[in-house]
UniProtKB/TrEMBL annotation:
This is Spore photoproduct lyase. Transmembrane segments: none annotated. Keywords: Lyase. It comes from the Bacteria. One of its GO terms (molecular function) is S-adenosyl-L-methionine binding. It comes from Brevibacillus agri.
Length: 357
């Protein structure tokens, strides 16, 4: 029943489509008690991908690699099929009231990603097959706030679009929220694989957001993601399908020529977006930040990165639990904010800027 994990299979469809195809798969035994777990196990086994059982999606051992960097890169090519046991949702301010846990981890290699810290020792991609239980818990949270809109963020710990072709969980969540009078779903992606979501019965209860950035940032710090052109084309499809659309400009990054770079980004967005996208459009602005732990992990995993992380050039911003992060000094942060807000107002006068942080 179980294939011993020895070596990765030859890559087939991934290069042609850009879709995530894991090199290794680990399965929790309990996951096979759910239809999605059974389906994934049988499908991936039929594709010849090495399969191995694991006692828990939090305790995966046996990912190959002679160095820490090799183990990390192989982990990013590893899929773990598990059951989400903790059904207490984390808060997700300012984006939403709660984070809905459909998956954890991402196969992309964005140098700056906060997942480097959040799931530092477990960078593999985890998908959860007890989707009905997760959605039932979401309904409980909605019912605890009678008469109020309750928003759920589905991309706090993963990029759900990047694995939708495997699980279908995002479409299930979209259609579930479409049926909830007071439930709303939000997620963000750097991928263009949206076709399976275009016919979902969303009832305009899901805001579909794309992460966008200046060319300098995409080219230098976002390996393994869809291109700007692919993302903007996908955004047009999403808008035509009736979804409320949004863009997260993050991380806002200070580089030589940043003003021209971000103006160019916004002008290309304006010129290439379909008219349907302009009716209900939002922007979220997030400056680059890092922690000391994140910096050490990033430099270990991406030793050639150009990402600037000099603590002496930053301001320390305290957060929850006595921990903090390094952000831009007020002068630089306010310059970034003012420039982006001015250009968005010029090019997208009807759009709403939800926050700058």
């Amino acid at each position: 029943m179980v294939t011993t994990l020895l070596e990765a299979p030859a890559k087939t469809g991934q290069k042609k489509t850009g879709l995530f195809v894991p090199d290794y798969v680990f399965v929790e035994p309990n996951a096979l008690n759910y239809p999605l777990g059974q389906e994934l196990y049988q499908r991936l086994q039929a594709e010849g991908i090495p399969l191995q059982m694991t006692t828990s999606h939090n305790q995966v051992r046996g990912i190959p690699g002679e160095t820490e960097v090799e183990k990390y890169r192989n982990a990013k090519r590893t899929l773990v099929i598990g059951v989400r046991k903790t059904l207490k949702f984390e808060t997700s301010k300012p984006s939403a009231e709660y984070a809905i846990p459909l998956a954890t981890g991402c196969a992309a290699h964005c140098h700056y990603c906060y997942l480097n810290t959040n799931i530092g020792s477990k960078p593999y991609v985890r998908v959860y097959v007890n989707t009905d239980e997760i959605l039932a818990q979401a309904k409980t949270y909605i019912e605890e706030r009678p008469g109020e809109i309750t928003r759920f963020e589905a991309a706090c710990t993963s990029d759900p679009v990047s694995i939708e072709h495997l699980t279908g969980n995002l479409k299930r969540a979209i259609e579930f929220m479409g049926e909830q009078e007071y439930g709303r779903l939000r997620f963000v992606t750097k991928f263009h694989h949206v076709d399976s979501l275009l016919d979902a019965k969303h009832n305009k209860h899901t805001r579909f957001r794309f992460s966008m950035n200046a060319d300098y940032v995409i080219k230098n710090f976002e390996p393994g993601t869809s291109s700007f052109a692919q993302r903007i084309e996908a955004a047009g499809k999403v808008a035509k399908a009736g979804y409320p659309l949004g863009f997260i400009l993050a991380p806002l990054y200070w580089f030589d020529g940043w003003e021209e770079g971000y103006t160019d980004l916004l002008e290309r967005l304006r010129n290439q977006l379909v008219p349907e996208a302009l009716a209900d459009l939002t922007f979220e602005l997030i400056q680059h930040r890092f922690t000391k732990i994140a910096k050490n992990l990033i430099l270990q995993r991406y030793p050639k990165t150009k990402l600037a992380m000099n603590e002496e050039e930053r301001k320390y911003k305290w957060g929850k639990y006595g921990k903090g992060k390094y952000v831009y000094p007020d002068v630089q942060a306010k310059a970034l904010q003012a420039h982006l807000e001015r250009e968005i107002a010029r090019l997208f006068p009807k759009a709403k800027i939800e926050y700058f942080t």
